[in-house]
Design goal:
- By secondary structure, the protein is an alpha+beta fold.
- The protein is 33% helix and 24% strand.
- The chain has 15 helices and 21 strands.
- The protein has an eight-stranded antiparallel sheet with strand order 17-14-16-15-19-20-18-21. Strands 7-8-12-10-11 form a five-stranded antiparallel sheet. It has a four-stranded mixed sheet with strand order 1-4-6-5.
- Strand 10 and strand 11 form a beta hairpin.
- Helix 11 packs antiparallel against helix 12 and helix 13 crosses helix 15.
- The chain is globular.
Length: 442
């Protein structure tokens, strides 16, 4: 028995995710300061008959990280291990927040190719659940992984890449915490570049009619539709020769903080208290954001602050089904008594080769529905999910859904590959929890 038990274990309290819709009471928490300490903690948990889950910042809306066993907190596993300018990669500790990684890379004149729209998550948490942004040619954060290090159920430290344990690399980039605890990730990077963002209001009818062209003409295209209105807000990000022209300090604060967070928070609170007012609020909210253009380094364009808390469901559809499904979603909302105060987000991703990626093997579009925290969401999400599954949708692993292993066995041609690998790496289900039991089976 190692000496980590006394030095690493801490008294536990109830763990809650960011949205507050998932809680857990672990038997103990461990905060290892090295991969070896993490491996010791995994072995000790197995000896004590306890399950093991690692948790990042809790930005998943599912119980993917919940456990009543040992909760691994990666707070001390942070920082850059190595930058390889020949291979153009960076190796980073698993608990490093994406925001810190982005800032460190920028100081080195480097950048990730694509990002999601927030950067509070840890690198391991974000990649393990398939976090993505939007892109015509560039895919999810996990698709930028060139190597992984993880502790497996027997306490071994295992490395994988295209050349080393390639069958594990194929699956572990989006591993759901089912194959082991990630300790470090190697990402592809490139010299830092500039992006020009063009944000512009557009009608629902126009953006859906022109969706294919808007997708084809822009490196990164996304839009938000405001339910109960015919209004959308679009965002187009494309590489730029410069010069840099960041959003003005005052105008940027008005758009990103006052309108997108402060006023929106107030609007959501009013809508929760008085649901009948939501359509009127939506009409005002959908016209509050004006057109703007700015140019900056990638992470300052891809990401923005998100302080209004919500619950979210997101489905990946074959890209050609996106507009049909969105129109069906709008028709459903209009004929129902639902009052939806949060915009619907639409993004895209090219096909990738990760076993359980929502874009695995097919060009995809993502439709995300949200409800303000504390507002009943089940009726809306159930109706939306019915539409998405009818189009062969794959739910985001870290967002609310009701699908199970039988569904995923049909939705993912390589599902059996993943479960067979799990049988090999974790036959005793040390990393099992209720969520994994539902989505992967026993």
């Amino acid at each position: 028995m190692s000496g980590t038990r006394n030095s690493l274990n801490s008294l536990t309290s109830t763990w809650r995710n960011w949205a507050g819709n998932v809680t857990a009471k672990p038997a103990r928490e461990v905060t290892p300061a090295s991969p070896q300490e993490l491996a010791d903690a995994v072995r000790e948990a197995a000896e004590d008959g306890l399950k093991v889950k690692a948790v990042g910042t809790g930005h998943s809306f599912t119980a993917v990280a919940a456990t009543d066993g040992v909760l691994i907190r990666p707070d001390l596993l942070t920082g850059i291990r190595e930058i390889d300018r020949t291979a153009m990669t960076v190796t980073v500790e698993a608990g490093t927040p994406l925001g810190r990684l982005n800032a460190a890379l920028a100081r080195e004149g480097l950048s990730l190719t694509n990002m999601g729209d927030i950067m509070e998550q840890t690198v391991a948490g974000a990649t393990s659940t398939g976090t993505h942004g939007t892109g015509r040619d560039s895919a999810s954060i996990a698709a930028q992984i060139r190597g992984l290090e993880l502790v497996t159920a027997d306490g071994s430290l295992l490395r994988c890449s295209e050349k080393e344990n390639p069958e594990i690399y194929a699956a572990a980039r989006i591993g759901l915490g089912a194959l082991g605890v990630v300790t470090a990730i190697t990402f592809a990077v490139e010299p830092v570049f500039l992006l020009t963002a063009r944000e512009e209001p557009m009608t629902f009818d126009r953006v859906t009619a022109e969706f294919d062209a808007l997708f084809a003409e822009n490196e990164h295209f996304e839009f938000y539709w405001f339910p109960h209105t015919g209004n959308c807000n679009t965002k187009r990000n494309n590489r730029s020769a410069g010069p840099a022209a960041p959003a003005g300090t005052i105008s940027g604060w008005i758009e990103d903080e006052l309108l997108s967070n402060g006023v929106f928070q107030l609007a959501c609170s009013v809508g929760r208290a008085f649901p009948a007012a939501i359509p009127a609020i939506a009409r005002v909210s959908s016209r509050a954001l004006s057109a703007r253009t700015y140019t900056d380094i990638p992470y300052k364009v891809f990401t923005s602050p998100r302080r209004v808390r919500f619950v979210e469901m997101e489905y990946a559809l074959p890209r050609e089904a996106a507009v049909i499904a969105l129109r069906e979603l709008r028709a459903m909302v209009e004929r129902s008594p639902l009052r939806v105060g949060f915009p619907v987000e639409v993004r895209t991703a090219p096909a990738d080769d990760i076993t359980l990626s929502t874009a695995s093997g097919r060009d995809s579009a993502y439709i995300a529905v949200h409800m303000y925290r504390g507002t009943p969401y089940q009726s809306y999400f159930t109706a939306a999910e019915r539409i998405m599954t009818a189009h062969g949708g794959r739910p985001h692993w870290g967002k609310v859904h009701t699908r199970d292993a039988a569904y995923f066995a049909q939705a993912y041609p390589r599902f059996g590959e993943f479960t067979a690998l799990r049988d090999r790496l974790d036959p005793g289900r040390l990393f099992q929890n209720a969520y994994l039991r539902r989505v992967l089976g026993d």
